[in-house]
Known about the structure:
This protein has helices at 2-13, 15-49, 73-104, 114-148; strands spanning 58-60, 69-71. β1 and β2 form a beta hairpin. The chain contains four helices and two strands, in the order ααββαα. By secondary structure, it is mainly alpha-helical. It has a two-stranded antiparallel sheet.
Amino acid sequence: MLKSLQGFKEFLMRGNVIDLAVAVVIGTAFTTVVTAVTKGVITPLLAVAGGPDELGLGFHIVPGKAATFVEVGPIITAILNFVIVAAVLYFVLITPMRHLTNRFGTKKAAEPTQVELLIEIRDLLAQRDEAIEAEHAANQRVERELETSSPATGTPADGRGDDKIPSRY
């Protein structure tokens, strides 16, 4: 139980979780402010633009029936809410954070391009081919030495008996 609480604490203390929580709280509070401003200022202005009808900016689907009135004012208000919140969050939070990160943040090593990766793969394959060729040449030398050794004694033809190359015969 204690380990699971410790893991939960570590999860909560990670920087990105706290940043997200702060962003949600700030976003909610700011949305409330923007909504109050649009309801108090923009909605009455849209109602004035809608004409003498007390229903506000919109139109009737069936003339004379109040239930068929399509309100355009709340849609415009919602769009303005969104644009104002997005603009303020961008200019107040995103832009300064990007500036601070660029100025003081750690710089990541540049990731290699596709061409650089392909060059590295080519070089590794070339090294592997060279190693295979060297091993093949060494095997051929050993086979030549075995072929030139004396079949009866198992010693090389030059008379050195200290080499312990097994005879084929």
